[in-house]
Amino acid sequence: MPAGTIKGRVLALLYDIHGNLPALEAVLADAERAGARRYLLGGDYALFGPWPRETLDRLDALPDAEWIRGNGERWTADPADAPDTELVQGAAAACAEELGEQRVRRLAGLPGQAILDGVRYCHGSPLSDVRSFFPEPADDEAELLADVTEPRLVFGHTHLAFRRQATTPEGGEIELFNPGSIGMPFDGDPRAAYALVDDGGELEHRRIDYDHAAAAAAVRERFDGDWTETVARRIESGLFDVD
């Protein structure tokens, strides 16, 4: 999608970067051309990616950024609370070593939600950073939307960019919006996904080309462990299931 289609004091929604610095740089360049002046950072900044420390350095340099915590930050700080798999445990150990204890604790202490301009932002859902919404409604949707009063809810975690309406437990309407994943999309399109919001509240999904094959190769080159092959293949394919 061409840059510059949204005007005003644009808010860029950056979710699920996963230590993929080239994808982030491509997105930031596109967002700047489109007029982005504010940033909502939606969690999962470093875990699994080839450049966790460098990615955090780049995000720390952003002006006017609102940060929230994802499950990746929580798992890196407390691996005992994460799935007991080589994929997660190996990646969390590598990420923690790269970032250092002070940075790991700072990220784990971020708030789980934020409200900006009357919109609620979270990582997975207001109830959980690992339970989320999908393009088609699921049975637990009403539970996840309990006590949400804002007309729009923005979230990530599933790495699937979509937008749809839902019904709250009270019978009201709410817009569900997932900007998609910058570093590791799971919809079959390996291009970086993010979104822009203009000062009137209009939303726009965007997909940005970058060298995802080189990013996948960097995971294999920079870290050891069986987990690296799964992550690399996900970056290459844009899919979660790579077996």
Write the layout of secondary structure elements.
Blueprint: E1 10-14, H1 21-33, E2 36-41, H2 52-60, E3 65-67, H3 71-77, H4 86-99, H5 101-108, E4 113-116, E5 119-122, H6 141-144, E6 152-154, E7 162-167, E8 173-178, E9 192-197, E10 203-208, H7 212-222, H8 227-237
Parallel strand pairs: 1-2, 2-3, 5-6, 6-8
Antiparallel strand pairs: 1-9, 4-5, 7-8, 9-10
Helix pairs in contact: 3-4, 3-5, 4-8, 7-8
Summed up:
With 243 residues, the protein is an alpha/beta fold.
Shape: globular
The helix content is 25-40%
Q: Indicate the CATH class.
A: Alpha Beta
What is the CATH third-level topology name? Purple Acid Phosphatase, chain A, domain 2
Helix and strand run: EHEHEHHHEEHEEEEEHH
Structural class: alpha/beta
CATH superfamily: Metallo-dependent phosphatases
Radius of gyration: 17 Å
Identify the strand order in the major beta sheet. Answer: 3-2-1-9-10
By DSSP (H or I, 4+ residues per run), the number of helices equals 8
How much of the sequence lies in strands comes to 15-25%
Straight-line N-to-C gap: 31 Å
Q: Per CATH, which architecture?
A: 4-Layer Sandwich
Q: What's the total count of β strands?
A: 10
**Main sheet: strands, sense, barrel:** 5 strands, mixed
Q: Kindly give the count of domains.
A: 1
What are the segments in which pLDDT stays under 50 over at least 5 consecutive residues?
1-7
Mean pLDDT: 95
